[in-house]
Write a structure and sequence with these properties.
Length: 208
């Protein structure tokens, strides 16, 4: 794969490509989902998450290489300043720094929104994901033993990372669609060489 890799907000038209990436993990304990969702079900998930949080994709030449997104960990209002993160890469894009780049950008946007703590739930034994989170400064918050069964019982690790101090009463979380476009565009300067950034409004990713 050559040429620029562009990171942008997900669009409804991305759903087949996102599902194709996710398909590679369905037969593994990386995800505890047993069957690949339908396009309609997956599209509904993307729209739901992207209405409030960043849902990022990376593409080159019109081909999706990976995606990362955040969503609410719990529904009660007092939990609005925490979020759960997820990242999936196409097999051919693994080991090239894409996961770290997507996750790093995701964390910066969440910080702009007012998220105080980011969490990730990882199946124990997923060495690549465990290494990614530790490299980005996540710490192990807990390990839940035998938490899911998929071709055997699996432990899950809860990783956490502080994004901002928890001091005083916080302002309400800002939906991603309400962030300053200029501030989002400035995040291009945080990306490594070879990456472009286009966080212009998308029908799914901004205020949907």
């Amino acid at each position: 794969m050559s040429g620029k890799w562009t990171i942008r907000f997900a669009r409804e038209a991305d759903v087949p490509g996102l599902l194709n990436i996710y398909r590679a993990y369905i037969g593994t304990p990386v995800t505890f989902e047993y069957e690949l969702p339908s396009e309609a079900e997956f599209a509904a998930r993307v729209a739901e998450y992207a209405a409030r949080y960043p849902y990022l994709v990376c593409e080159t030449g019109g081909r999706l290489l990976g995606y990362a997104y955040a969503h609410r960990l719990f529904t009660r209002e007092a939990y609005q300043w925490i979020a759960e993160l997820t990242v999936y890469l196409a097999p051919e894009a693994a080991g090239r720094g894409l996961g770290k780049t997507l996750y790093g950008l995701l964390l910066r946007i969440l910080r702009m929104q007012g998220v105080r703590t980011a969490y990730a739930i990882v199946t124990r034994g997923n060495a690549a994901s465990e290494a990614l989170h530790r490299a980005l400064g996540f710490r192990t918050a807990a390990v839940f033993r035998d938490n899911g069964y998929k071709d055997g019982w699996h432990d899950v690790i809860w990783f956490e990372k502080s994004l901002a101090p928890c001091e005083g009463a916080p302002a309400p979380l800002r939906p991603v669609g309400e962030l300053d476009p200029a501030a989002l565009a400035a995040l291009a300067g945080t990306l490594p060489p070879g990456f472009d950034l286009d966080l212009s409004p998308a029908e799914t990713g901004r205020g949907a």
